[in-house]
Write a structure and sequence with these properties.
Elements: H1 4-21, H2 27-33, H3 38-45, H4 55-66, H5 71-77, H6 80-89, H7 103-108, H8 112-121, H9 129-149, E1 153-155, E2 161-163, H10 172-178, H11 207-228
Antiparallel strand pairs: 1-2
Helix pairs in contact: 4-5, 4-11, 5-6, 8-9
Length: about 250
């Protein structure tokens, strides 16, 4: 169980160090930059108040202190119990960045067909020639053969086609070129039948609201990630899950 008193002391130390570094900065100005009132900040710092600060409030505060707008960087750089509390509150951002980028695969993805073939082959069930042909026609088959010939993909005895690395990570530079193509598979006309659970939303919101959205999304997103990687969930259906926000990363 987290020591709330110690957490508050560490928050006080962080703020005091920030004010020492920037003497002209007041507690009120820090609170305003964090989108909170000075009274709220004083309540957090009060050792008599045994309530934990709201995670989104503490996240906003550490963004001001660390002068960073990237959530993962704030979680990584927040010290002691502050970092522990934030990482527990926003677990999806605690997942370390993946580094198993296969340079050969990355170099071969020069078009959208290659991107989708690699993506399909990287799923647990892999893909098959018939699936590629049905989706992309003869040109898709040609790209498939090219990817197999350069040993980016491998064909198993049962005909399943997989990437040479299990669940490979396509680099961000390559992904952002073709990520928009995912929406070609969005069967919006089937949403009423429950065959498509993808939901798109575009609104102008405040920093506070955005942090609330992140908080709401973090737990189910982590659970979905854990669920789809369990051996018992193996199957032939493909799932696309996209969460995009200018705050989370530029595509």
């Amino acid at each position: 169980m987290m020591n709330i008193l110690q957490l508050k002391k560490e928050i006080t130390e962080v703020i005091d160090a920030h004010k020492k570094k920037f003497p002209a900065v007041s507690l009120n100005s820090i609170a305003k930059k964090a989108g909170r009132s000075e009274a709220t900040l004083r309540k957090i710092l009060s050792l008599e108040n045994q309530c934990k600060p709201r995670p989104d409030t503490l996240l906003n505060l550490m963004m001001v202190i660390l002068q960073k707008r990237d959530v993962q960087s704030v979680l990584t750089e927040s010290p002691g119990l502050i970092g522990e509390y934030l990482n527990r509150s926003f677990p999806i951002f605690s997942i370390p960045p993946r580094t198993n980028i296969n340079a050969k695969i990355d170099n071969e993805i020069t078009d959208r067909e290659g991107f989708f073939i690699v993506w399909l082959a990287g799923a647990k069930s892999g893909t098959h020639r018939d699936e590629i042909k049905n989706l992309m026609g003869e040109f898709g088959e040609q790209r498939l053969d090219e990817l197999i010939a350069c040993e980016a993909l491998t064909v198993e005895e049962n005909g399943s086609i997989r990437t040479v690395d299990e669940n490979p990570y396509i680099s961000p530079d390559v992904s952002k070129k073709f990520i928009g193509e995912f929406f070609r598979f969005w069967k919006i006309d089937q949403m009423a039948e429950g065959n498509n659970i993808m939901y798109g939303i575009l609104e102008s919101i405040s920093d506070e609201c955005r942090n609330e959205v992140i908080k709401i999304l973090s737990e189910p997103s982590l659970k979905i990630r854990e669920l789809v990687h369990e051996p018992k969930t193996y199957g032939n259906k493909k799932i696309i899950s996209l969460i995009y926000d200018e705050y989370l990363g530029q595509l």
